[in-house]
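Bug #2210: token dump truncated for arginine deiminase?
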Amino acid sequence: MADWTVSSETGALTDVLVCPPDHYRWIPTNTIVRRTLAGAQQPSAMALAAQHKELVHALRQGGAQVHVLPPEPHLPYMVYTRDSAVVTPWGPVLCQLERPQRRGEYAGIIDFHAARFWRKSSAGTLEGGDIHVMKPGVAVVGASGGRTDLAGAEQFAGWLRAEGWEVRVEPFDEHFLHLDVLFCMATPGLAVACLDVLDPDFIAWLKGHGIRCIDVPYRDAMALGCNILALGGGRVVSARGSAGLNAALRAEGLSVLDPDLSLFTAGGGGPHCLTCPLKREE
Ligand SMILES: NC(=[NH2+])NCCC[C@H](N)C(=O)O
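Reproduced locally. Full output below:
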């Protein structure tokens, strides 16, 4: 079995975990998908498979080996592999999903990792979408009290602090679901962030760490416009629908792979949520 390690959000992605959308459907678990359900029919299996394939192609084009978690019929959100486990420099950490509709995802992820976790979340709740292992020595954990609560965030932060890391626990409103709806890294010195919403203290802290932000307006962030995945080497995966942001990223000299992911962003998750990096090269 491989020893998975990730020590940044921006190192060259060599291995990544995804889960095909065979059983995906929208269920009302967050503000974003509730809005979707009010105005749309469930997406077709064919359309979902086609969009997911675009994502997988982008990941492979970026040089990553794509590993597949077998989907289960009773777990429609397994496709968002970001949330059930997060890989750290010391190995994978098993999260503790908050929603009853998603808790069963622990079973498949335990099997995938053959139960070899560095740590297992056991206090409160902890979801991978709230965790950014930003760069060696620095991480941030969002604590909305919803998907990740203070107890869950502090337990995770404690494990990294014990290794000498600086970990910021960042409170934000539950309305925004996960911190990765408001903030993601593009390159070691560049992030995308919803400045309308994030605490100015957080932005100043980023700046102190040499990280500049491209601003994404509230409306775009709620359409998962901030939810990008860095591939390393100046490349990112960002959904086709994020046209304004993608132009801004290209203007920064980045190469943007832009799969159409509209059916998944309508459920509350984009490229960052649909992927769990297993290995990055620093
Ligand atoms: N890391 C993320 N932002 N994940 C998105 C998860 C969306 C999913 N529909 C849920 O409600 O749980």
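Output looks complete on our side. Residues 45-61 form the longest helix (17 residues). Marking as cannot-reproduce; reopen if the truncation happens again.
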